[in-house]
Amino acid sequence: xxxxxxxxxxxxxxxxxxxxxxxxxxxxxxxxxxxxxxxxxxxxxxxxxxxxxxxxxxxxxxxxxxxxxxxxxxxxxxxxxxxxxxxxxxxxxxxxxxxxxxxxxxxxxxxxxxxxxxxxxxxxxxxxxxxxxxxxxxxxxxxxxxxxxxxxxxxxxxxxxxxxxxxxxxxxxxxxxxxxxxxxxxxxxxxxxxxxxxxxxxxxxxxxxxxxxxxxxxxxxxxxxxxxxxxxxxxxxxxxxxxxxxxxxxxxxxxxxxxxxxxxxxxxxxxxxxxxxxxxxxxxxxxxxxxxxxxxxxxxxxxxxxxxxxxxxxxxxxxxxxxxxxxxxxxxxxxxxxxxxxxxxxxxxxxxxxxxxxxxxxxxxxxxxxxxxxxxxxxxxxxxxxxxxxxxxxxxxxxxxxxxxxxxxxxxxxxxxxxxxxxxxxxxxxxxxxxxxxxxxxxxxxxxxxxxxxxxxxxxxxxxxxxxxxxxxxxxxxxxxxxxxxxxxxxxxxxxxxxxxxxxxxxxxxxxxxxx
Length: 516
Hints:
five-stranded antiparallel sheet, 8 helices, 3 domains, alpha+beta, Immunoglobulin-like
């Protein structure tokens, strides 16, 4: 191993010398990847799109305040990771770029998964090195995931770095958490092959609308909102090869029932509001429309569902063609992506937008999130763009030299912010509903062993009604700022529907009562 890395270091030194940086250093982590020798010729194996090839990876990184030096590749105190990996190229359109994105898994010597923290991110073994190849600002994904987390939902965490592969400087990359079921990522139950009847079969699932690729066959397809066009849905976790027919049938049927309820405009106690986490759908639409993401709804569009839980939209993924950046000119500041005649996705997105129950929540949430000093305000979004751009700017000198890029980066940042200014203005003109912000009453815990507590302002709650899953009313409660609890301990364990009637609106939520 020592001999291999001595040779490897000399190769890296040679490449960095060609770029006028004999003492290569960066304020970002430095990732060094050396693939295993090819048995046929002894040369480093090429990285392909499946299967993963074996490799060794070192990450030179101490903390965000310490400059990282390539010469410290043999200094254990400067190494954030020093061990085995499996690596492959990844992506769809990005496969055709000379600068590849990579999927990698950290491994033990015997090839088993090695859960580790890379660059300060929570421990796991599945990671993505995003080449950011098609984004001239190099920040659209990072920006969007950060905005998503600011709205209260999980979105992949990221860390910028500079990458060498087999002695070749590959430029600026973004280490990204791969979407998967994990307590630090999509924190839902994990299915076993034996989970084939309710309640076990009800979750958890991650699935997506996307292209069917090698290793990701279509689970089902539905007509899109465009003539003679279909949306393909793919199981993501569990993997298609591990999901059993009963599980595929369950989540497909649940999704079909949801789509039909939206098409019917059914907002009753057993209608679509009882089947989804509406805030996740509202926020998902807000983020994708703010970005004018050309892939939204049709590609890289994720959903997840926990056991005995509601269907949730997200996590967010893949925003390189957004915020006005798209080679086919589809990311406009003055169009809704769900109705632009291109990647419009399944009809339920436009149907949700046009449904008064959903639209009122969308308008209220937009005004709440974009108000001054709130997570999605134009001012805060501009500050975030500037912060990311300033952070990566020193590395862009090397990135542009490596890939022979000649353009004005500062002008791209200016154009992106100017595009956003127009986008905010246009959306504000479209969402002109009632200016009152209807905040959904907060309660916890859910699941509950019996006692449900209400948080925040409760004075405008007129009554609370409890229904069983068949729609029969079981109890009615009246609370105020003094009495902020309801007691369900005398009811059998199971799934119930809580309907909260306020002075402004009626909110419906599914709750689970269980012993533990």
